[in-house]
Specification:
The complex is a heterodimer. Chain A is an all-alpha fold. Chain A has 8 helices and no strands. Chain B has a domain at about 45-80. The chains are: A mainly alpha, B mainly alpha.
Chain lengths: ~180, ~90
């Protein structure tokens, strides 16, 4: 399969998924580039056990999560070196919130939702993004995440419960949205 | 109380579903292509050449070590001649 063909078929999907993880265009574009660098490197070794789309979804999710981890560790190292905060667990927001898919007047409300999503574990974050933002079916999400439907359902229930806890601990979400 | 929070989470999901899809910029393709071009990858030819070179070095080392060992054995046998405890002209 030719690289350009794969790129133009999937680049929008890659960018939008990355955007749900990092919530700003600059970082999402950087992730998109990294995803397609990986695709171009591994395109010849790709075994067709899964579809190209599922393969690219997995690369995008892993790349986004790695990007967030790298960014968080950079920030925490920088801050701890300045303030000698080695013993204090830093709670850092992963990125600047500037999601272009959200209207300006709703930005503050959505920022709170995404802050809560960002505090979930990697798998819980991914299940919310795929099922609720990307509107993927359960079977598609299960395939992408390499889980059984049953495992996916229980993961989603845990994510939903934790998100509920996180949102209700915070400000009054209802007023803003 | 619990019921209210459940409604909230469903509302949250409704709002998440309304996040709009974003169109990628046109120059993202060229940026990606450039990034792929600028990737510093070592060509396979050089990887194979380096591997052959290493194997050759190890081979030469092994050969010189084993030939040195033989010379040492010969020198030892000159100093201490081996006897086989067989009587001649028996």
């Amino acid at each position: 399969m030719i690289f350009d063909e794969i790129y133009f078929e999937h680049h929008k999907m890659v960018l939008n998924i990355a955007l749900q993880y990092v919530q700003n265009m600059e970082d999402a574009e950087e992730i998109t580039q990294d995803v397609f660098i990986k695709v171009s490197k591994n395109i010849h070794t790709f075994k067709q056990n899964s579809s190209v789309k599922t393969w690219i979804y997995r690369i995008t999710i892993n790349q986004s999560l790695d990007f967030l981890k790298a960014k968080n560790s950079q920030k925490s190292n920088f801050l701890s070196s300045i303030f000698s905060l080695n013993d204090i667990k830093l709670k850092i927001e992963p990125t600047t919130f500037n999601h272009p898919g959200i209207e300006l007047e709703q930005k503050e409300a959505y920022k709170k939702i995404f802050e809560a999503i960002n505090q979930l574990s990697d798998n819980q974050k991914t299940v919310i993004i795929l099922l609720k933002i990307e509107d993927k079916s359960q079977s598609e999400t299960a395939e992408i995440m390499n889980l059984s439907i049953k495992a996916l359902e229980s993961l989603f229930q845990r994510a939903k419960k934790n998100l509920d806890i996180l949102l209700n601990k915070k400000d009054n979400y209802e007023k803003n949205v | 109380m619990k019921k209210t929070s459940n409604i909230n989470i469903e509302q949250v999901f409704d709002h998440l579903a309304s996040v709009k899809k974003v169109e990628p910029s046109k120059d993202l393709y060229f940026k990606t292509k450039n990034a792929i071009k600028n990737q510093k990858t070592i060509p396979l030819f050089w990887v194979i050449a380096a591997a052959c070179f290493l194997i050759a070095i190890v081979g030469v080392e092994f050969y010189t070590f084993s030939s040195k060992k033989n010379t040492f054995n010969q020198e030892i046998s000159i100093v201490f001649p081996e006897t086989n405890n067989i009587l001649y002209h028996e």
